[in-house]
Design a protein that fits this description.
The chain is an alpha/beta fold. It is 41% helix and 15% strand. It has twelve helices and ten strands. Strand 2 and strand 3 form a beta hairpin. Helix 5 packs across helix 7, helix 5 packs across helix 8 and helix 7 crosses helix 8. It starts with 9 loop residues before the first helix and ends with a helix.
């Protein structure tokens, strides 16, 4: 039996090119279907580490001192850049993570703790960070709000809880690109009441390394392995039994160099859905240890005591817009001598007593 004639060698190459083209078309169609179906949050979240790792074609990768910065087109809404001179830049840039529908919260911040332009000897600037809403009418309202106040930073991604890490990287990237001379960056949620005078005064006393990362530190927190939880972290993404120490995402401070180092480290790590744990992971990769500030409340909800809010604590979480406005109208120094002496111990005792009353109530 004679052997069949040899198959031309060019045919496999043509066939491979044809199959490659078909697969490319299918990939584009699949991506379009995915985006149309509302799955773009997951697509962005999974693709961001690749985007951060990859430089422009033919260009060398950015060094640790020059983290990748988002392009201007990534921000549909963006506040004016800070003054380029270090002397005119804000000493404290407050970046408030908000949501498109949280107009009342942003208004309360602007009229209370976010109103001052200086605190504790530092120039202060406040910016609200959010993503894209699902409704055109809400986007139009955001554009009017941005035109009126000039303090909205909007990233080109869906505003969902799953994209909170993406939002944080976006606001840090904007700060590095448009406000690089800021001495400190404070990330906070929009339901946090900040005692900026006391916090700024504390920041001015800092010594030691320039790369500072401060807040209420969580130690030995285990990743959530329950797929039903919004904090779910699969072992394939992060196999370690516990996260490194990290500051509560309700409010934490990064010095300018620390923020740049966190952004640079983000290129080397898988994107975790737990925003504050991811920032802590980036800080560890950059060799920065978090510093614990007991006066940062973290997720603890303190009772509405003017002395605690306005003098003792640096931050308080879970504050409604109405309460925020009321606290903003309180006297600047609400503590009596004995309250000031007891300080944080008194505030913690009030929290414990309030919790006991709620549990024992009808």
């Amino acid at each position: 039996m004679t052997a069949p004639p040899p198959f031309p060698r060019r045919c496999p190459r043509r066939l491979a090119r044809l199959l490659g083209g078909l697969l490319g078309c299918l990939a584009v169609l699949s991506a379009l279907t995915f985006l149309a179906g509302g799955g773009h949050e997951e697509l962005l979240s999974r693709s961001l580490p690749l985007l951060l790792r990859a430089g422009a074609a033919g260009q060398p990768r950015a060094s640790a001192a020059l983290p990748p910065l988002p392009a201007a087109a990534f921000f549909p809404l963006s506040p004016p850049a800070c003054a380029p001179a270090a002397a005119a830049a804000p000493g404290l840039l407050v970046l408030v993570a908000s949501a498109p529908g949280h107009l009342a919260r942003r208004a309360a911040v602007r009229r209370s703790w976010g109103a001052p332009r200086a605190a504790g000897g530092l120039a202060v600037r406040t910016v609200f960070a959010l993503g894209l809403p699902g409704e055109a009418a809400l986007q139009a309202a955001l554009e009017r709000e941005a035109a009126e106040h000039g303090d909205l930073l909007q990233g080109r991604f869906a505003d969902t809880y799953a994209n909170l890490t993406l939002k944080t990287l976006a606001l840090l990237g904007w700060a590095a690109a448009r406000c690089p001379a800021a001495r400190f960056l404070l990330k906070a949620d929009d339901d946090v009441f900040l005692n900026l005078p006391a916090l700024a005064s504390h920041l001015r006393t800092l010594d030691g390394p320039a790369a500072a990362y401060l807040g209420r530190v969580h130690w030995r927190v285990a990743p959530t392995r329950d797929p039903r939880s919004r904090h779910y972290v699969p072992a394939s993404l992060y196999p370690a039994p516990a996260f490194p120490p990290y500051c509560s995402g309700t409010a934490y401070v990064l010095s300018g160099p620390a923020a740049a180092a966190v952004l640079a480290a983000a290129r080397q790590l898988p994107l975790l859905p737990v925003e504050d744990a991811f920032v802590g992971l980036c800080a560890r990769r950059a060799g920065i240890a978090p510093r614990h500030l007991a006066r940062m409340a973290g997720s603890t909800r303190y009772p509405p005591d003017a002395c605690c809010y306005r003098e003792v604590l640096f931050s308080t979480h879970g504050v409604s817009p109405a309460r925020m406005l009321a606290m903003g109208a309180e006297d600047e120094r609400p503590c009596s001598a004995w309250q000031r002496l007891l300080g944080l111990a008194r505030c913690k005792a009030l929290t414990w007593l309030t919790a006991e009353e709620e549990e024992g109530g009808p």
